[in-house]
Specification:
The protein is an all-alpha fold. It is 89% helix and 0% strand.
Length: 96
């Protein structure tokens, strides 16, 4: 398993930690308050837009990292399987 694969996996695991959940709960609370203001300031409107953009980008990142982790894990398994099969075939070849 490569270093980058491990880092991606660690990041994904960290996204599901209790600290991260707490942070997003706070962010959700903030966005609810800002969205329900009767007359928001321009900065509050920008904050809401930024928060939604951040969450969207984070979801895309999580999806891409998940795909990367699965792809790398699968390709590693495929390489090991191919190597093992190559050794097995050579072993059988030399026995004949």
């Amino acid at each position: 398993m490569s270093v980058s694969h491990n880092k991606a996996k660690m990041f994904l695991e960290g996204m599901h930690s209790s600290d991260t959940r707490s942070t997003f709960e706070q962010l959700t609370g903030l966005i609810e308050i800002l969205e329900n203001k009767p007359d928001p300031d321009p900065i509050e409107i920008r904050l809401v837009e930024n928060i939604y953009a951040f969450i969207e980008k984070l979801n895309i990142l999580e999806s891409n990292l998940t795909s990367y982790s699965k792809e790398k894990g699968h390709s590693l398994g495929t390489k090991l399987t191919s190597l093992y099969e190559g050794i097995s075939h050579k072993g059988n070849y030399y026995r004949d």
